[in-house]
Amino acid sequence: MSDAAIPPGILIERESANRPNYLNWSHTVKDWLLTSDHKRIAILYLISITFMFGLGGIAAMAIRAELVLPHGHLMESETYNKVFTMHGVVMIFFFLVPSIPATLGNFVLPLMIGARDLAFPRLNLLSWYLYTIGGVISLGAMICGGVDAGWTFYTPYSSIYSNSNISVTLLGLFIAGFSSITTGINFIVTIHKMRAPGLTWMRLPLFVWAHYATSVIIVLGTPVVAVTLGLVLTERLLHIGIFDPAIGGDPILFQHMFWFYSHPAVYIMILPSMGIISEVVACFCRKRVFGYSFVCGSTLAIAGFGFMVWGHHMFITGQSVYTGMIFSALTFIVAVPSAIKVFNWTATIYKGEVVFSAPMIYALGFIGLFTIGGLTGLYCASLTVDVHINMTYFIVAHFHYVMVGGATLGYLAGLHFWWPKMTGRMYPEGWAKLSAGLVFVGFNLTFFPQFILGWLGMPRRYHYYPVEFQTWHVLSTAGATVLAVSYIIPIIYFIWSLKYGEKVGPNPWGAAGLEWTISSPPLPHNFDNLPTVTWEAYNYEVPHADEEVDHSGGIVGDEQPSH
Amino acid sequence: MSVEVAHEAHGHHPTLHHQFEDLEQQNDSYVVGMWTFLVTEIMFFGGLFLAYTVFRHSNPEVFADAGHKYLDWHKGSFNTVVLLSSSLSMALAVYSAQKANRGAQLLFLGITVLCSFIFLGVKYLEWSAEFREFHLPGPGFRYVTDAHIDTAKAQIFFCLYFAMTGLHALHVIIGILIMSVIGFMIVARKPCVQYYMPVEMTGLYWHFVDIVWIFLFPLFYLIPKNG
């Protein structure tokens, strides 16, 4: 992209190219493993999360391979149960929940608000260690013996009857939960107290807003699931439990407590992704995000309403019909703020100077797939329809449209968007566009047939099925193969670009935002001088202000009019 | 001019960390962080309080019977007084820390730790009595009463009792560890405790632990007899 295409922005060249940046100021293993630098911790998280994503993906491919044939020739039923449990546990707890906040959020958030680091850098490092320890314990249990309860760990099967490695897995999840909590606390304090002078709440990038809402959900929700899983653990180990009906306990109470976290957890996964889409769409349409304040409000509304809808997972548990009606109505309400976001992104694109770069293609894919995922969510939220489609592949397809089509595509969009900032090198654009297209095709081929399967009555978590479903299953497996290839390509070219990628300046996209005013890769302490912000977020439409280069590290420029 | 050199004070105060501009920002961050942490703690205990509410609502007569027959409200009240006293001494420790009075700080932290040990000691007596009565949930559970209640369901009462007081006791133990470490650091004149913030944050945590007990005490020991 040429400099001429860059409108206002805050593009500066500096002599910092030769100064040691956060990657090369030291090379010892100790300096990486004991670092308190948010950027290095983000890289540590990126490596661990990619590893987990790979493992979860292998489990997914095993599931799809098994389902090609209607009578499951590849593995026994017990093994199949363990494989889909591993896929769920790894993807939810070790990939989707920490993916964006712990990697991109960790890296970019302090840069966006003009801070030298998160408020509690050592807590941040502790978070990664908790994640790693929890991950090793859970993975060890799932690989050496396996767990067959599904990622939801419903009682009383998980607490009394299952003979698989549930206790150890739960211990790992319990520990990993605290890594999530520490990240949430860190972000909340950082956003409240570490913003640069002049960076008011209504000037914050939407990525920051999204992480604020996410952190609130983490702080309020994660402790509840921790204590719930802890109770299953004590029930298995010490007989101190409250979910066993034989002693007056209530297995349904587990579902209430579990979904009180695990439904909002869906928003933990999707909200940061939505924040990325706002950044990417604004940048590649050269426009301010349409209805900025409404997008902020809808972010908080999603977080708030997200806590009041957990009962829609339990329509068929025999809960009161009136309870079901209220949960159903509240679930429909969540669609409103979600739709506000989709409308606002679309309105931002409208009449924008759209640049079809790889992050933008991912973002466009997100908008389409998230819309399908959201609208099919309304089918599931309707009481009577849900009785028909609950526990079928319709649900599986629905949440994969939101979790993979939404959260993961957003994650990839963000990874491409900030890759030059993180590494100082550009990925190969052609390959990136190819894999962005492949993800979209492969994804739809994998999961659209599952809507049809579910509608026809194929239950989830079964690997024996009537022969007439086979065509759809084969299509789905073919799609999964394409999807797998489209995930492997970025891993290869990202690693390739570390050495051979074209070197970039501070602002290769001509993007607005404080993170683009500093060198790529950033200096260890981010900013030489902390900036004072006098402009609103996404000031792409402001006429190019006169700018000078301040070699001490900051930006000298005329104040830009806010409007 | 849109750039300010705003960190002249940087690095002047020995306890100021590099990511903060000044002590005020650092203190504010500590306070906000600690309160946010306490919110997570409330939610953590909240799950158990929810479970208590559900099961007491469905088995009021079992809870009343078990609470009256087998929990001694004298010991519970004594422990409440002990813990409230520890809260007072913790508040005084924070006050002395703000006044930079080393001796008083150590004295009051010591009293707080002493009270915590007394609390745990009484809790030990109570728990071991329950163990002797076969009230530990599991296959060996036994419950004797002359009231007309479903004795099988008494187990849920003791599950909640052990889970909630156990989690609370764990928090007391963590509190003792934190206070001891801070006490030793004050004795060793470590720079990070020259400043009052660590003691103040410990104080916030300790008051939270006390408040949890203020709820646990009536819920388990003072259940009305007629349900």
Protein model, in words:
The complex is a heterodimer of chains A (563) and B (227). Chain A has helices at residues 29-33, 38-66, 77-112, 121-143, 157-161, 166-193, 206-238, 251-285, 292-306, 321-349, 358-381, 383-389, 393-423, 429-456, 470-500; strands spanning 425-426, 502-503, 547-549, 555-557. By secondary structure, chain A is mainly alpha-helical. Chain A has a single domain, classed as Cytochrome c oxidase-like, subunit I domain (Cytochrome C Oxidase, Chain A, Up-down Bundle), CATH 1.20.210. In chain A, the strands form 2 sheets. Chain A has a two-stranded antiparallel ribbon. In chain A, strands 3-4 form a two-stranded antiparallel ribbon. In chain A, helix 2 runs parallel beside helix 4 (121-143), helix 7 packs antiparallel against helix 8 (251-285) and helix 14 (429-456) packs antiparallel against helix 15 (470-500). With 227 residues, chain B is mainly alpha-helical. Chain B contains 6 helices and no strands. Chain B starts with 22 loop residues before the first helix and ends in a 6-residue tail after the last helix. Residues 1-11 of chain B have low confidence and may be disordered. Classes of the chains: A mainly alpha (563), B mainly alpha (227). At the A-B interface, helix 6, helix 7 and strand 4 of A face helix 1 and helix 5 of B.
